[in-house]
Amino acid sequence: MAQANGIYDQPPDTAFATPKEGYVTIGEAQTLRDDASCINGGTSFLTLHAWSRKVGFPAVKLLADAVVESLHLAPITLQTNRLISIMHRQTRVFRDPDGLTSHAAIDFVARTEKPIA
Questions:
Q1: Cα dihedral 57/68/9/112 (nearest 10)
Q2: CA separation (Å) from 60 to 1, 18, 75, 97?
Q3: Greatest CA separation found in the chain?
Q4: How does pLDDT run across 4-32, given as a tens digit for each residue?
């Protein structure tokens, strides 16, 4: 993602450094079990956050779009489970309370199952 300074769990103090002045963080997650006969599976709701200090919303919207294009229906291989699908649900864009930072909350839903041993 060329628009971001990085993707972080905990962003460093330099995350807004120029020239890109934006970054992505790994946010909240919730997993609900959804077992069926002979298959252990679940649905995970995942949120990523995009942040920008460039003026207005265009930069954070471009960053959020890049996240969506990277993950929506991506054929991702997991170490312990099998990803059935990952789909973008919604993106919300808003100004943070500091008045300077544009923020996008990008929501995905992923369905997984444990491989049959």
A1: 150
A2: 13, 15, 25, 16
A3: 53
A4: 889 999 998 888 877 777 999 999 999 99
